[in-house]
Amino acid sequence: DWTPDSFVETTIAQLKEKLGDDKVVLGLSGGVDSSVAAVLLHHAIGKNLHCIFVDNGLLRKDEYELVLDSYKHMGLNIKGIDAKQRFYDALAGLTDPELKRKAIGRVFIEVFDDAAHEVQDVKWLGQGTIYPDVIESVSVKGPSATIKSHHNVGGLPDFMKLKVVEPLNTLFKDEVRNVGKALGIDPNILGRHPFPGPGLAIRILGEVTPEKVHILQEADAIYINNLKAAGVYDKVWQAGTIFLPVQSVGVMGDERTYENAVALRAVESVDGMTADWCHLPYELLAKISNEIINNVKGINRVVYDISSKPPATIEWE
Ligand code: XMP
What we know:
Largest sheet: 5 strands, parallel
CATH superfamily of the largest domain: HUPs
CATH class of the largest domain: Alpha Beta
Structural class: alpha/beta
Shape: globular
CATH topology of the largest domain: Rossmann fold
Order of helices and strands: HEHEHEHHEHHEHHHEEEHE
Strand order of the largest sheet: 3-2-1-4-5
Bound molecules: xanthosine-5'-monophosphate
Distance between the termini: 43 Å
């Protein structure tokens, strides 16, 4: 019978057998899948697992520091790389969503390849691929697909020539979470909402600038913290804040303002393929809106997205 504990036991044994004294390099994203894959590999091969966590400057507020810290706490052999500026430079002037994704994918590959080269004699690339990623291209937009779409641009980066080890490729998402629980991984990591690889770049409509990222991080932190405080975070499948490229008139004290708007998005879903907008309580929305407008400089209007998928998508880009 399949149980999370039996899976953990057999998988660790198989990984030990398969990998021996080989080194593995793995990119951590802060998400559930890569975290569980890393901890399994860590149990099997310890310090021979070299994890890489890239700060692309497009993560949520304080996320890089918090996540890096909790990975270190778990004893993972991890290297954090501050590549913010490289991503911002690559995004400068880009407004088309797919060009933004491509630029982010390209820089990620460059940064990851440099980091992987620093691991002497590495033989394997570890990945958090799960079963749905294998059977269909659910992750058409996922990191591995981003990587694939770059296969024929200037040849294969060296890390993609490595053998691939994917300990979760027979599991569904809820099974991954249960395996994570059996491994004792922090519930805060296991319960995280899905977050797109290109991060806040696709939640800033139009050109991405560090200033807009900062404003969006502040607004989003208020939103997410309020969802947690109200006890609704775990009931929502995914939530996020979108920076809109429109300015509108407002008043602040005696002054007329002319600033940007943010949209709040919260959806219920099973797999992200279809989604319904969440009927969040009006009182909660009112509190979040007030807090954002009163505390985030540059935002004077908050709207709530009441579109379901299809025909709308979860992300706005
Ligand atoms: P959409 O917007 O297509 O999103 O309804 C469905 C799910 O996919 C996530 N998403 C992405 N994930 N890279 C990713 O890794 C991407 O480019 C990307 N675009 C969308 C989205 O957050 C949602 O969970």
